[in-house]
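Ticket #4471: structure output looks truncated?

Reporter: J.K.
Steps to reproduce: submitted the chain below (373 residues) through the standard prediction queue, then opened the result file.
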Amino acid sequence: MHDVKEEQNPRPASRPDPPPETPRKEGGNGTRKKAGVILLVLLVAGALLGFRLWVRSHTHVTTDNAFVDSHVYGISARVPGTISRVLVNDNQFVRKGDLLVELDRADYDVRERNAAAGLAMARNETSGDYAKVEERKASAVNAGARLTQADLDLQRGRTLFTREVIPKEQLDRLETARKVAAAQLREAEEGVRRAEAEVGLAGKGGRDARVAQRQAQLKEAELNLSYTMLHAPADGYITRKAAEPGNTIQAGQSLMALVALDDAWVTANYKERQLTNVRPGQKVEFEVDAYPGKTFRGRVDSIMAGTGAAFSLLPPENATGNYVKVVQRIPVKIAIDRESDPDHLLRVGMSVVPVILTEQKLRDILKGLNPFY
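Returned output as attached by the reporter:
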């Protein structure tokens, strides 16, 4: 019976437990909070990084339009001739005064000897000309004495003629003799002036004009002889050698080039907007593509007086109807610190990325943003 009652009153079925909704909501809110914090941190970090880059753009002025530059000496002959010796090779380092090329000296040595002989002859001829001048002066003195005597004879003849002591014919001969003596004196004086002019004693010329002329010719021959020896004008490296023994060259013909790396510099073409706070003397740090990771130092030497376009072969003509504004670039010369390049690693034409340290303060940069300042 008991079993039957239990079957008649069965137990109610148990209900499933409700899902834990409350803990799930708390976990979602925590994830959102963490994402918001991370986003806020990223925004702050980005703002700080952007502000730092903006400040750095004012204190560190950079460009990639920059190259190494230096003095390049063109080696050429000042006189024509034939090359007898070439004592250097391409890329060889030479010191100032080293002999580079020697021309055949035979022709110029003969000219020098000829000029020296001409000077000696001029000195001898000048001595003879001095003697000739003295001789012409003596002749002039003699002619003057004859004229004086002719004047005296004419005066006596006129006195005797008035007393009717001598005939008119004899008086005429005395007057003719006086005219002849005067003409001879003028001729003698002209001869003195001509002799003095030949030797350089007359007018504004020098006393030894002929000797001075020969001396100048000798000096010219000696200079031409010295020009057959081509020496290095400075310390540097030989490049573009085109001289070979036996070549016949003309005056001014390029034989080689010499690059002086001891006085190299960097030419950086900055945009005109970047030069607002750039001044000579500011420090510069730069890198070279050939030596990644190595930093060289220098300083701003000077800023060019005009843009690159203004001094180009064909400068732009802006006074036209189709003018388009283009940001111009101005070359800045950067002197290289020799201690940062003791081994002369830098070569002419290498690409450089310079950074000019303007040393601006933050307050100065912020003042530029104030429209009422």
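Triage note (M.O.): checked the attachment and the full token line is present. The helical segments are 2-8, 21-59, 106-162, 168-199, 209-226, 362-367.
Status: closed, working as intended.
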